[in-house]
Write a structure and sequence with these properties.
Layout lengths: L3 E6 L10 H6 L3 E7 L4 E6 L3 E6 L8 E8 H10 L4 E7 L5 E7 L1 H4 L3 E2 L6 H13 L6
Length: about 140
């Protein structure tokens, strides 16, 4: 009987980010960084966290981290996630499927699509870079 599972995360649960402590708290261990198959789109939900949805058209690969965690910790992680995020199967670049964090479609309505950044880290770095650029005197 399995007592651990792999979980793919694509946002604030990633190493060094705001909610990574939630994974650490349940005894999760970082396995590796990878990407999804090119069948996902990504949105910024109020610049607080991302939401990723599998699509038939217009998708691309999104950066992920794979973590191993006790099954007992999976429910705790899900309960701590923002409303509208859920656990589902994510197809990785190597065609394996693992459990991972996905967004419900309603959550993305009217939000900023950030798919072209390829991941939450790239998007947040771009926002930080824009915020720290000096303004022109003209």
């Amino acid at each position: 009987m399995l007592d651990t599972c792999e979980l793919a995360v694509n946002g604030t649960l990633m190493l060094g980010l705001e909610l990574n402590g939630n994974l650490q708290q349940v005894g999760a261990e970082f396995c590796y960084a990878t990407t999804t198959a090119p069948i996902y789109r990504l949105w910024s939900i109020g610049d607080r966290h991302p939401a990723m949805i599998r699509v038939n058209d217009g998708g691309r690969s999104i950066d992920l981290e794979i973590w191993s965690l006790p099954l007992a910790g999976l429910a705790q992680i899900l309960q701590q996630e923002p409303a509208g995020l859920c656990i589902g199967k994510i197809k990785l670049a190597d065609n394996r499927e693992v459990l991972g964090v996905l967004g419900e479609p309603f959550l993305c309505e009217g939000q900023l699509e950030i798919t072209h950044f390829g991941g939450w880290r790239n998007y947040t770095k771009s926002v930080e870079s824009t915020a720290t650029q000096p303004r022109s005197a003209f």
